[in-house]
Amino acid sequence: MVTTEESVVTVSIREGHCEGRGEASGVYYHAETAESVATEIEALRHDVLSGINREELAQLAPAGGARNALDCALWALEAKLAGRPAWLLAGLDRPRPLTTTVSIGADSPDAMAMAALDYPDAVAMKLKLLGDSEDAARVQSIRALRPDIWLGVDANQSLGREGLEKLLPALVTARVALIEQPVRAGEDEVLEGLNSPIPLAADESVQVEDDLPGLRPYYQVINVKLDKTGGLTAALSLARTAREMGFDVMVGNMCGTSLAMAPAFLVGQLCTIVDLDGPLLFARDREQAALYSDGQINCLPDIWA
Fold it and tell me: Residues 146-168: pLDDT tens digits?
């Protein structure tokens, strides 16, 4: 499947002369769409106009795209009203530029190699796999083209235990550094006893903090996405709790503009792996755009808060 268009939802919340904005794409594998997210947000209009705060929002709305857009807008508004940057309110150090992966969509090995040529400045790439007989060739084609880069793969639940074991030797030879979501969410126990020399990351298998204890035996890395967690508030908490439990933490995105990358960029300050390439996949980004240079992303304050 080739995606040629992506719909996002933007929320603006104003108080006086200050405005906070948030963006969400929704969680596609939970059947969220821009339309469904917008409908959920509209249902909370009265609460927002009544002055809801982020803690109250978490009690009223479930994790997902609607809460994400509203939560991020409230963060940005709070920062502007306080006259302090959001990173400071979040208890973070001053943000630094982050090395980010760029994603290469699943296709034939030759087509993926050609797609990789579009990112000559990339220092890290994440390859999408399909769980078929060409996965090894897909990885080998990119590694042959770019022997210098950090390389990860995202199976999107397609491999299963047997497929993963079969593919592992090729991944090791290609110096793959991360395998993301090799099995179906909810079937993670099939990984029990697997001795993988490459760290495994949970993506679809982890939505919120309550998911973490059940994943500890099977994964070493947790992929945090704001659309999954329901906003920056929950994403920061998930990242910090995962680190306390001994996981490495990755920040990702459901695709989005620079408005969505900015709060995720703050979560990235707590992460060892960053996958915030959403705007690179668009023909046109917002006027106030994140900066991508030499394989890094940098979000300036005026992008968001």
Answer: 999 999 999 999 999 999 999 99
Domains of the chain (ranges; CATH) run 9-89 (3.30.390.10), 98-303 (3.20.20.120)
Distance CA 129, CA 269 (A): 28
Cα pseudo-dihedral 278, 279, 283, 289, rounded to 10? 170
The full DSSP string for 167-178 is HHHHHHHTT--E
Q: Give residue 247's region: left, alpha or beta (phi > 0; psi -120 to 50).
A: beta
85-114 per-position pLDDT tens digit:
999 999 999 999 999 999 999 999 999 999
pTM for this entry: 0.95
CB 305 within 8 A of CB 84: no
CA distance 81 to 98: 27
Distance CA(20)–CA(13), nearest Å, equals: 5
